[in-house]
Each structure stands twice: as C-alpha cells, then as structure tokens.
Amino acid sequence: MGKGVPVSEAAPRLEPDAIAWPPTWPRVLDAEFGPPSAGEYRATPEDFQVAEVLDFVPEGEGEHLWLNIEKRDLTTAMAVRELARLCEVAPRDVGYSGMKDRVAVTRQWLSVQLPGRGAPAGLNEALAERGIRVLAEARHPRKLKRGVHRANRFRLRITGAAAQDPAFEARWAQLVERGVANYFGPQRFGPDGRNLPRARSLLARGWRKRDDRDGMLLSAARSFLFNELLAGRVHDGSWNRLLAGEVAILDGTASQFRAEAPDAELDARAARLDLHPSGILWGIGDSVADKEALVREARLPERYPALCAGLEQAGVRLARRSLRLRLGEPCLTRGENALWLAFSLPRGAFATAVLRELIAHPTL
Known about the structure:
By secondary structure, this protein is α+β, with helices and mostly antiparallel strands. It contains eleven helices and 14 strands.
C-alpha cells in the first residue's frame, strides 16, 4: 500500500473523489463533556501570540544576515517580500523556517543573503514602519531553511461564553493529561476549504510544479487524508493507544519503531505521553505499519482512490505524523472576562487543533 511511481504527462486522467465540505472530524472531548461553548480567540492580533523556538543560535559571522523579528497583522510571505525589497534582493534569497499566521503577533527568524556587504542603512527603521520590529540580529554562514525550528510557543486569549463555562478548566486539564488529536488546522485547506477542490482538480489532470510551486495543494491533499485517518481513530477511541503493527513515534523526536504487539510497558508509555501512535502521510513507498494499523491505512485508497493515486503520480514520498500531541509547558490563567492559554507545540502542529477541543467557532 502507498507504493507507486511518478507517471508521464500521458498518464490517464483521474476522476476526482467526492468530498463533502466542511468536514465533521470528531473532537476527543465531546464524548465526556459534550460540545464546547462558543468562544472567540482572535478578536485582535494581540489575542494570538506565537514565538518560534530554534534549537540553535546563529554563529555570528557569514554572508547571511539573520533577523529575529516581531510582526503584527502580516503573513510571513509579506515580511519576506518586504525584507527582500528593502535589501534589494530576490525573495528567494530570504530564508525562513515556518509560516506564521497573519492576524497575530508573531516572532520568528528570517535570513537574507548579503555577501560582502552589510544591511542597508536604516533597515530596522524601515521595517518598523511596516509593522516588523527587529528584536535581534546576527550573521550566519547559511540560509535559514524550512522546518528547522523545534517548536512554537503560543499565548492565546479566549473570550465569549466558553471563557465563562465552568467545564472549560476540566476540558483543558484533560488535554494536558491525555494529549491533543494532531489534526491539521483549517488554515491548511484555505478559506472555506478552497485548497482541497483545487488540489483534487490538479491531481486529477496530473500534478505539475508550475501549477503548484510551493506544493500547497499537494500538502492540502495529504493533510485531508491524514485528518480522515485520524478522525476514524478518534471515532473508535484508538487515537491515543497503540494497535497491533502500530508505528510509534517517540515524543519530541522523529524516532519511530513498529510495535508488533503492544504490551503493558508500551501501553504505559503511551498513557504517560512518552510515545504516540502515528498515521500515514500518503505517497510513494511502503508503509512500515502492519496488522491492524495497516488495515486502517489501507482504507484511505478505498475511499479516496483519485487523491491517493494522484499523490503517488506526483512523486510525493510517503511519511508519517504523530496522531497525538503533548502540550508543552501548559498554563491557564483567568483574567477579566477572558482566559489566557499558553503552551508549546512541535513544528507542523496547529494551535487550532487545541482550540477546537475547547471552544466552538465557525473557523474551527
């Protein structure tokens, strides 16, 4: 399963799978607490704060200038374009690790290649005029690459009926103790899920990089399939435990191994969030999963044959993703008519996956 090879331009056209939107992916906590109360989480950019966490610091010399920035109400792409314009370089010469939300106050590193020259005079002041504050700067020999940050630290303000709900603290405590279902957030699928039908159409006629230069549509398709797999595991209660043949991922690492037959020790480690079950990110290659876990994965091409075949024909490599998240350094504080949540998540995880368990909101 999940095995295939790229095909030529003459590959047969695929008929798109029928997909209903919006999806009804189940929440974990509803079985115990019922649906959450309505709430707001991003009334202003200051209500949604994110700080990128790196595992290293710039070396202090080299042809790349690294800037630790704080931006408000700007996407990462906007900040990249502005930095490139002010430094008179192409946007491809500006590096970043992760894409950050627009309606938010976010901190992250950017790099810009400036061989043999310093930063333009007044760069920091010019950036500040556009809502980008430089917090620190240093030189480094290499460009900042995608996905090298370790985690993101969030601080979120919750208002509305959910903030007054006496069950909120209990819901939060369960997430801290049991972990969070690692759904891809709605931003992966675009406004009203529009990235997904675009991805279906592109894969049906044959994916080409010129039609999806950043791979956004491939990512939307794979994310949808993963969420469907995870939704099934949430529905039957197996999202946080190991099945026979499960590929387990060690918490906080990329290390993984196959559990042929889970035993008491592995079950105990899963219960204390030391390791997590995983799901497939569809593509070319042989799945390491076996037995019951493999049977669950094999249902995806049965339900969505065109999406799975299209991803294989596009040459995407199979990967794996944890089905569950541990909240790092969780903290809940109550303010006037509001709650503040603070927690860290590994890169690639979505704060909206946490929020959808705690509040009801149209965007979640």
